[in-house]
Amino acid sequence: QILPCRFKKYYPSWKTPFILDDFQTFTQSSPSSYEEWNREWKKSNLPKALQSFDISRLPSHLKKRLRPTKDFFIESSPVESTLDYKRRLFGEYGFISGVDPSILFVDPEVAKFESALEKATERPIEEVLEEAKRAKVAFDELVNERIKNIKSNMKKMPELIEKHELQKSKQHSISELEEQKRKAVLEEARDRFGYYLDPRDPKFIKLKQEIEEREKLAKKQQKKINR
Q1: How many CB atoms lie within 10 A of CB 150?
Q2: Alpha-carbon distance 4 to 79, whole Å?
Q3: Structure confidence by residue, pLDDT tens digits, 79-129
Q4: What pTM was estimated for this model as a whole?
Q5: How far apart are CA 40 and CA 46, in angstroms?
């Protein structure tokens, strides 16, 4: 049979650095766990001969809860005078607590007021469920509409891709044509002046305008011939 054995009680707040030597332990610990342990024995109100049989390891304030006396039920804080605390006290200790059970019931006037307030502020459950049902139907309709739009757009996707590719090829051809025109203007400027001009040079700008005018006249003459 295993006999219960008593160990020294230790709380985290008792900061005794056991890794130190004895001198540092007894001089620098704050507070010393040994002093706290002896103080607990004194507070337990047990005879010294019976202290070795106390194996519960409970602090004194918890031992008083197991065997409460009249002093235990004396109010010592504002919280203990509240109705909720007295209800809990009576529910745990009964008539020993000295609480009058007649004061623990809800006042009929208070209950009536709370019932009227609940009816005025809270909606019936049927109304809440109906509103949730309508919200779900509206959400489902929105989802279905979005799915329908996605499907219709997916059907148009090949046509849109084809248009995009055509526009991309046109843009590429236009950029190539512009690059060819720019090179042609640069070559003409080199033939006229004997060297390549900077596109920002006034001579180059004037030459470019002359070429544009010449192209416009050529287009007009071509239109007259086609008529």
Answers
A1: 10
A2: 38
A3: 888 888 898 888 888 888 888 888 888 888 888 888 888 887 777 788 888
A4: 0.31
A5: 10
